[in-house]
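Lay summary. Proteins are chains of building blocks that fold into shapes, and those shapes determine what they do. In this project we predict the shape from the chain. Here is one chain we studied, written as its sequence of building blocks.
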Amino acid sequence: MISRRRVLFCAAATAAASAAPWVHAQPGSDTSFPQRPISLWVPWPAGGATDVTLRLLADLAGRQLGQRILIENRGGAGGTLAMPVLQQAPPDGYTLAQMPQPVFRAPHTQKVAWDPIRDTTPILQISGVTFGLVVPAASALRSVDDLLGHAAAHPGELSIATNGIGTTPHVVLDGLFARHGLSYIHVPYKGTAEQMVAVASDQVMAGVNSNGFAPYVDSGRLRLLATFGAARTGRWPNVPTLDELGHGIVAMSPYGLAGPRGLPASVLRTLHDAFKTALFDPRHIAELARYDQEIAYLGSADYGRSMRESFAAQQRIVERLGLRPGQE
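And here is the predicted shape, written in a compact code that computers can read:
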């Protein structure tokens, strides 16, 4: 478990959306790809917000391509388990993966065989997420101050779930408690769906995660105490941010899709165009809105620059906070 005295913030590397000058393939320009179904690896268990929205995106993009895009779930290890698959796949366009923020952090905090920049071909950025702190609807903890007060009054009793060790919710939570000199019991889950059920059923006292909590909050099963963005969300305008509460924390996680290193330009262009069309489909926009997400499109070149900036930013933060292996 990452020390509670350490905190790591996601680089908010979402630049202004700018359309890449892609030209849609004309009939007869490249008929060799795709000729069979494509696998899209999602490094989270089925049923969470990212899985649900990517399934719809894959279905819409598959219609553009004339081939099915099959979702393959590989949850665990803080959202990094799709990287070995991507690293070892041939660069033929038939193996893709979601790129969540933890893949840019993990190489700086642990020994891994893959590199998120060296081993990938960026396709496009999709969106970002809203993080929040939730408790069961019937909980006596009605604010962040209540949560911290309980931790202070009952050391070693407060249990809080996240979607995995080393994820943004985990490290932000560590930062919040370290700031106040408090501790908590960390309960990691492989993904959002099982975590939210655990919080709603009082198996744990609180939870920190991204947009997957939205249906539980809207249905009244969970209470949202705070969000982690720079400003309050349009969906829950009465819920304060951690920053405005004086905790000095702003976090978000832009994500996108990538293929293996060395994708041919024609294959990359075909994939980009199909996913971009799907991204802006009204059905996909509506599905994102269910989880308080908006489109944060970046084309292949811009997304590649954003990935490199995120990777470098994570390295600087890791070194500053002494989280690199071998550092004190």
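What the prediction tells us: The longest helix spans residues 300-321.
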